[in-house]
Fold this protein.
Amino acid sequence: MMAIRGERGRLWSVLALLVVLQFALRPRLGMPSVAPDFLMVALLLFAIRSRPGAAAVAGFLVGLAGDAMAPARVGAGALAHTVVGYLAAWGRAVFFPDNLFVNGLVIALGVWLRNAIQLLASGAGTGSLPSQLFVWAPLQALTTALTATLVLMLFQRWLDIRIEG
Amino acid sequence: MPPRSDRTLSRRDTALFAVCVLLSALMLVRPAWGDAAAGTVRRSVLVPFLWIQGWSEASRTSRASFDALRAQRDSASYAAQFLPALRSENQRLRGLLSLGARLTIPYRAAEVLHQSGPTDGRTLLLSIGRRQGVREFSPVIGPDGLLGVVRTVDPERSVALTWAHPEFRASAFALSVGVFGVVRAAVQVTGSNQLLQLRGVAIRDSVPNGTLVVTSGLGGVYPPGIPVGTVVGQAQEETGWERIYVLHPAASPEAATQVLVLLGMTDTSLARLFTGDSAP
């Protein structure tokens, strides 16, 4: 019981660090459409270690927070994050959550899928959808996955990650 | 067959997922509910996080701002040597042309708190709010031109709706040809740049490429003369009674880091906007 509690505590510490990085470090990186999304890293790290229901609720809350800060179409972000969180947790049955490469891949796919759902749900007609989906979203997915890989390598013991793949 | 506890957990997961999706869908179909929920979250849970982000944005831009200010100070010092002569000449010329005094509008500078979602740029979260004098429908401009208008105001923050938002409209005027129209974001499914449209141009009028389009001042929201974009072509979707022109935007919301929020437009006489030399 103590071990599980300690494991959970370490996970929450990493998640809290990522939330702080989102607001303190991300603005300094510039290029907001490409800069890594630390909140998505936190959400997906939590999701692939949790039950789908909890991951969906976490996704909904993260999405609602995003909608509150960029309310182009409130609800689109909540929907996108809910779906991505739920799918990431549900997919735990078919991949290895302790594998570094798998974590990176899931996070990259999650960011791209989040962007796609959010763009479509918010009405992307006035933007350039192909460039958003096939240029900017993949770039953000890539930077976020690389950031997640770095975080996982730094906290591999806390997050039970196998570096050797 | 899975154990009963597993099935119960699975049902609970599905139920939680369904509830979250339902709540999201409700906010999408009832924007008023969504805006209320978003406003509540922004004014409560997110306050400390937005404070951190505002501080981070300010410290990032302070160095660049300092360099720019130093350059401006040097230029201003040089220009100040000729200021009295320029001012008297300006007054004399304005008197000769029977022009009114230049319209002065109070403003506040604000940091843009960019977010990570793909719709960032359609709305901008600004670091100033009601306590700094911001009101709904305050125009938001950047160094290059019009960015949008304030839609929601919180005590310490505000949300601006930019020209990239589907609901944005502004009355505009094509300089040098004297043609009025309404500017909105271009409906576009290809290309890499977001563009604008100048709609409602009478079929008898034409606007050549390269023409600068500025706000007309009609409607009383935007002061006249703010650059909106430059004509880059004519859209194919003419309706028979109007021409539609495609504009390259003057200012990019996604690239904006610091903006000016114009204050006090509602207290300004509209008649004054059309009599001075500030009219386009």
User: Anything to note?
Assistant: Chain B touches chain A through 63 residues (CB under 8 Å).
